[in-house]
Write a structure and sequence with these properties.
The structure holds two protein chains of two kinds.
Chain A lengths: L5 E2 L10 E15 L2 E14 L3 H12 L12 E8 H6 L17 H8 L6 E4 L10 E4 L4 E3 L1 H11 E5 L1 H15 L10
Antiparallel strand pairs in A: 1-8, 2-3, 2-8, 3-4, 4-6, 4-7, 5-6
Chain B lengths: L9 H4 L31 E8 L6
The chains are: A alpha+beta, B mainly beta.
């Protein structure tokens, strides 16, 4: 298991691999009998997954006069990072009233998780000096957020950005996870 | 003008020395441990906000 290297330089735009704090996801908006209700989930940590070239093009197109808004993104993909200790016990979403399957810390199960041999998860552990605890990215829980919202959020809630090779590894694993094909068990 | 024999400046040969100023030590040593900031300890939480649309109408 490798310790994930990071960069602390914030930069003006959203980048793939950015780790942001307190990212809000709009769970639903409803209106009933004149009462508007908005439910938000606040993720203590989330990582930006959108391809960096797309983020760069969006940033450049928004800030320079172009004939079209062809490269503007509608939203940015992120995935939550959960406290690994909570994931081991299956309690990481208990505040949302969601119970998850435990992933036992020890034995082969725990080792598979930390060695990133489970397609759904990406385990991250950081060197000393990086203020992030061992965390687990859950690819199944990807969500989207507005580009400009994230850019504003980054001004005060940027933690770090994972370094290039580690970022590429995570991005590739996420892409593979989305592209997986679940074959039915009983095939003739 | 450097000394012809040694090539060293007269100031050096005269024993001029430079001293690096050292920071004054605090009178009382502060041993209070600085809390290390660590992110990611908390769990995700839900915030539900409600607004009465009728109350905001003109």
């Amino acid at each position: 298991m490798q310790l994930t290297k990071t960069r602390r330089h914030r930069g003006p735009r959203i980048c793939q691999g950015d780790i942001l704090r307190d990212v809000e996801f709009i769970e639903y908006v409803s209106e009933r009998l004149g009462v508007l209700e908005v439910s938000r989930i606040v993720f203590p940590l989330a990582m930006v997954l959108t391809q960096d070239c797309d983020l760069e093009q969006d940033y450049n197109f928004r800030r320079t006069r172009k004939a079209t808004q062809d490269k503007w993104l509608i939203s940015v993909l992120l995935a939550p990072m959960y406290n690994a200790e909570h994931v081991y016990r299956g309690e990481h979403l208990s505040e949302l009233g969601i119970s998850m399957e435990p992933v036992p810390r020890g034995g082969n199960t725990g080792n598979f998780l930390r060695n990133n041999e489970r397609p759904r998860y990406h385990y991250l552990e950081f060197p000393p000096g990086v203020p992030v605890i061992p965390s687990v990215v859950d690819f199944k829980h990807y969500f989207s957020a507005n580009v400009e919202y994230l850019r504003q959020l980054k001004r005060t809630k940027f933690v770090c950005r994972i370094s290039e090779l580690f970022r590429e590894d995570l991005a590739l694993r996420f892409a593979n996870y989305l592209a997986r094909i679940g074959l039915p068990e009983d095939t003739p | 003008m450097p000394d012809e024999a040694s090539g060293m400046s007269p100031e050096y040969l005269a024993g001029a020395t430079q001293t690096t100023p050292t920071a004054a030590k605090p009178a009382i040593e502060d041993t209070t441990p600085v809390e290390e900031v660590r992110y990611g300890l908390a769990k995700p939480r839900r915030i539900v906000t409600r607004a009465n649309l009728a109350a905001n109408k003109d």
